[in-house]
Design goal:
It is built from three helices and no strands. Helix 1 (23-42) packs antiparallel against helix 2 (48-64). It has helices spanning 23-42, 48-64, 74-86. The chain is mostly helical.
């Protein structure tokens, strides 16, 4: 290889659990499923809307950790969109020809 090192394309997946989830993802999904389980045991409902409301924590947490292409998961996509729109929108040039206000 002449001293060159090529990083494999799937190197990030090796640091994840099952190649898909980070520990934060599993904690988020586990807490949503746990809350849903507690609600199912404590609340009795016969309506479809009531059942959907009970299942909502598991559905939302499952949606957030669902993997999508080009991003780790939906939660990471939402964080990236927020930081793009909430971040600094005026870019200041600090290149090699920038004089920091000095004309000398």
């Amino acid at each position: 290889m002449n001293g060159n090192y090529l990083i494999p394309a799937n190197s990030k997946k090796s640091s994840m659990i099952l190649g898909i989830f980070t520990p934060v993802d599993l904690i988020l999904f586990g807490s949503g499923v746990g809350l849903t389980f507690i609600l199912m045991m404590s609340i009795h409902t016969d309506t479809f809307i009531g059942m959907v409301m009970i299942l909502l924590p598991a559905l939302v947490s499952g949606f957030l950790v669902f993997p999508i292409p080009n991003y780790h998961n939906v939660l990471q996509l939402i964080v990236n969109i927020y930081t793009f729109f909430a971040g600094q929108r005026q870019y200041r040039w600090k290149g090699w020809c920038f004089k920091n206000g000095n004309n000398k």
